[in-house]
Write a structure and sequence with these properties.
The chain is an alpha/beta fold. Helices cover about 25% and strands about 20% of the residues.
Length: about 350
């Protein structure tokens, strides 16, 4: 949307954020003034039972594709190439983007663009990775490709410093921010244990294809920030997933909430950026943060496989130390834990 808020609409949106519990802030995520930069106009309905996720767990109309490369390939890892080539090589080995994107599709790519940092800091999805994904979608026939985020730092600062806008627009896509509460709709989470429903970005609910494109990195609260954790940027108030009444406990419901969201919103495809990765002081990093380039991209429809493989490659903790991976695999049936020697993992 290109129109701007008048003062009355701005105050109404701001009041809506506070009135629904938005005053509690995610650690490291400062408060933000809402801006109207998404693509879906009009007020947010109070309920959306007709848009509730079906029993399969899929949210919205985005398609789910199973085993595009055949039954013997459940995930692909590309290594040791320039970033654009990592993406194109991994996609080709996994059946090609045309297995997911059809002529005329509206595609939403969800990167990690939470922070007003440059590409060298290793906390946001790299612009070259996103440009390559956008280009692949356009070549497969996508009518529109949106790269959307609900950032932690102020969205205007993230746009300026991330380098993503020029890269994405150069590849034929468009970058949007989901700050305005009217750009969301409430969706039931039928499999939710802690979170029974949530406000999910309308762009996500209404797209044909949802591509999750996280930056894999350290996170102080969850050990790693991967594909499932990245989806917290699809909801209006991700800070609520960190709410905790026991001041002596450390986010006891956070991992359950992440699995609840992963059960309800299922990306069509996940493409993981494991190039320059923040290994310490995540999720935002800092002056003394360690960054390492693994020159790796993971591609799979299995979000659990992506997070388990990414955790092993990152090497800062074990898969069993990340509860939401186990919950998603064992309790929700969202995928399976894969190791780097798994016979159904293809390395290119």
């Amino acid at each position: 949307m290109s129109s701007t808020f008048d003062r009355r609409r701005f105050l109404r949106a701001s009041a809506g954020l506070v009135g629904a519990g938005g005053v509690a802030l995610l650690a490291g995520c400062p408060g933000r003034e809402p801006t109207q930069t998404g693509t879906a106009p009009g007020p947010t309905p109070k309920s959306a039972s007709t848009a509730a996720a079906p029993p399969s767990g899929k949210g919205g109309a985005n398609r789910l594709v199973s085993q595009p490369a055949g039954p013997d390939v459940e995930a692909v890892i590309a290594k040791g190439k320039p970033r654009p080539e990592l993406v194109t090589t991994a996609l080709a080995a996994y059946g090609g983007m045309s297995a997911f994107v059809r002529q005329g599709d509206r595609v939403v790519i969800k990167p990690n663009l939470g922070w007003a940092k440059g590409p060298a800091d290793g906390v946001d999805t790299h612009p070259e990775i996103l440009a390559a994904v956008v280009k692949a979608c356009k070549e497969a026939g996508a009518k529109e490709v949106l790269v959307g985020e609900h950032s932690c730092d102020a969205w205007v600062a993230v746009r300026e410093t991330s380098g993503v806008v020029d890269a994405v627009e150069g590849a034929g896509g468009r970058v949007v921010g989901w700050e305005d509460p009217r750009l969301y709709r409430e969706v039931d989470f039928p499999a939710g244990k802690s979170t029974k429903a949530d406000q999910v970005a309308l762009d996500v609910l209404e797209c044909d294809v949802l591509i999750n494109c996280p930056k894999f990195k350290h996170h102080s609260a969850t050990g790693i920030c991967g594909a499932m954790k990245n989806q917290m940027g699809l909801i209006l108030r991700p800070q609520n997933y960190h709410l905790n009444t026991d001041i002596f406990a450390k986010d006891p419901n956070l991992h359950v909430n992440i699995a609840d969201l992963a059960s309800a919103v299922r990306p069509t495809l996940t493409i993981v950026d494991l190039t320059n990765c923040c290994l310490t002081e995540g999720p935002k990093g800092g002056p003394g943060s360690k960054v390492k380039d693994f020159s790796t991209v993971i591609v799979s429809t299995d979000i659990v496989a992506c997070d388990s493989l990414g955790t092993q490659i990152l090497g800062i903790c074990k898969v069993e130390d990340v509860p939401h991976i186990r919950i998603a695999a064992d309790e929700r049936g969202l995928g399976r834990v894969m190791t780097q020697d798994d016979p159904k993992l293809k390395t290119v």
